[in-house]
Amino acid sequence: MYYDVSKKESQDLKDEYKLLAEKMFGIIKVGAIDCHEEEELCEEFGVYETPKIKIFTENAHDDGLDYAGKKEWKAISASAASKMQSFVSVVTDENYEKFIETDPHKNKVLIFTEKKNTAPLIKALSKTYKEKLSFGQVKRDPELFKKFGVTTFPTLMVLSDPTAYKGEVYEMTEMKIDQLKKFLSTYAFQQPKKEKTQELTKLVSKGNNGVCGKKSSNLCLILFLKGKGEALFE
After folding, report:
1. How far, CA to CA in Å, does 181 sit from each of 133, 143, 189?
2. Is residue 195 part of a domain?
3. Which residue has the higher pLDDT, 193 or 95?
4. 126: exposed, middle or buried (Cβ count in 10 Å: 0-12, 13-18, 19+)
5. What average pLDDT does the segment 220-233 reach?
6. pLDDT-derived band at 226, boundaries 50, 70, 90
7. Can you tell me the distance from the alpha carbon of 80 to that of 1, in angstroms, rounded to the nearest whole number?
8. I need a surface site. Which of 62, 114, 182, 231 has the fewest CB within 10 A?
């Protein structure tokens, strides 16, 4: 925000702007320049009337976008959030398997929500941990909600057994960035737990084995024997 402390319009915006800085702490960088004291700096940004709010992306060469909406913190934060980088995938029941199989060295984080847009808090976390965690958002998908047993929103969890639709849920009532970072950091530096599966083998003929996996169309049988049972197949 570019302001002039001697003008009433700037004074009227002060409390709302301070609230913006408080609510978006750790998510969006919020700053202010007093054009009464820093006249040359304001002119460098093409600001000749105050108060004025400009929103900048992470590109160092960005000239900034003049904000023309309501002078309320929620409206300002929504406009700024729309410019944020996001590393959150939209996950549905149809592409869930692809999501969990991509980047197998990363733990998977899922956010279940009934809202259409990705919260700026989640966008910020996805950038912070983009090299360590894979973030996905499940939006209004009753099928995945049911499979994970999710009934309250928003719900954030780190998947512990993706194929069984199980995960470690963030249990805190409020979604606060410091608490979320503490929760996620535990998984950011851990390798995902290996899936405990056992491959079943069908004996087609002696010396010719086939694998019976998840995607196999074969009918698989398990034969329990006392001893090796090799003589049965000779």
Report:
1. 12, 29, 12
2. no
3. 95
4. buried
5. 62
6. low
7. 13
8. 231
End-of-domain residue from the set 61, 81, 101 = 81
Span 65-86, average pLDDT:
96
Which token pair is 22? 């408080």
Helix (H) / strand (E) element for 158: namely strand 155-161
pLDDT at 184 (0 to 100): 97
57 lies in the same domain as 132: no
Joined tokens for residue 62: 């960005």
Task: Take residue 90 and report the two structure tokens written for it.
Answer: 């939209």
pLDDT at 60: 85
What is the spatial distance between Cα 91 and Cα 98, in angstroms, rounded to a whole number?
9
> 100 and 143 share a domain?
yes
Q: How many domains does the chain have?
A: 3
Who contacts 227 (Cβ-Cβ below 8 Å, separation ≥6)? none
Are the C-beta atoms of 64 and 56 separated by less than 8 Å?
A: yes
Give residue 72's domain range: 2-81
- Which pLDDT belongs to residue 173? 81
* Nearest partner of 221 among 201, 196, 197, judged by Cα: 201
Backbone phi and psi for residue 162, each to the nearest 5 degrees, phi listed first:
-55, -40
**Parallel, antiparallel or unpaired: strands 155-161 and 166-169:** antiparallel
Q: Percent of the chain at pLDDT above 90?
A: 78
